[in-house]
Design the sequence.
């Protein structure tokens, strides 16, 4: 959603974003580990794992990964794995309330099939 459109929505922007997130993300919570969240809208040269981890410091974070392009720049998304289901649930409840580098981030349940594909060259979050 563009910032111009959000500006026209005015003071209700947070409510609109929260409703959109709920409408488009109806995946059930995982019943067993990994408890992983997809984190979106994390663009910028100064985006890093420690900054992303700091946002969720009150929760039980197991690992964090910002996905980068070949030049080392954030591709705009990453993953946070939580130690327990309660932490994942808490992060999801507060989506659109977190910001990183001046941008509101999106928190959704990660699709396990998309977390670790060959294009990302990831084997673990660590």
Sequence:
């Amino acid at each position: 959603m563009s910032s111009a459109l959000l500006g026209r929505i005015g003071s209700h922007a947070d409510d609109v974003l929260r409703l959109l997130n709920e409408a488009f993300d109806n995946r059930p919570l995982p019943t067993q580990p990994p408890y992983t969240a997809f984190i979106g809208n994390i663009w910028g040269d100064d985006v890093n794992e420690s900054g992303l981890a700091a946002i969720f410091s009150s929760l039980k974070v197991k690992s964090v990964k910002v996905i980068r392009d070949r030049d080392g720049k954030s591709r705009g998304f990453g993953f946070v794995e939580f130690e327990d289901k309660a932490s994942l649930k808490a992060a999801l409840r507060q989506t659109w309330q977190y910001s990183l580098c001046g941008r509101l981030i999106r928190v959704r349940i990660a699709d396990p099939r998309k977390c670790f594909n060959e294009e990302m060259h990831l084997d673990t979050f660590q």
